[in-house]
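Here is the promised in-class demo. Please do not try to memorize the tokens; focus on the logic of going from shape to residues.
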């Protein structure tokens, strides 16, 4: 999940940093996808090990 956290942060920052609206939307979309990945991994971990991450 550390990779997803780092990627989410990076994509969010790049989305804010760029002045091109299309590129910004791309990075915002990638950040949302990383958030979904993190959520799925967290759920799978809790399901397998029965404890919070």
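The designed amino acids, position by position:
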């Amino acid at each position: 999940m550390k990779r997803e956290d780092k990627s989410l942060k990076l994509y969010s920052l790049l989305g804010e940093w760029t002045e091109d609206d299309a590129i910004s939307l791309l990075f915002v979309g990638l950040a949302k996808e990383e958030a979904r990945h993190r959520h799925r991994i967290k759920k799978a971990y809790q399901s397998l090990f029965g404890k919070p991450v």
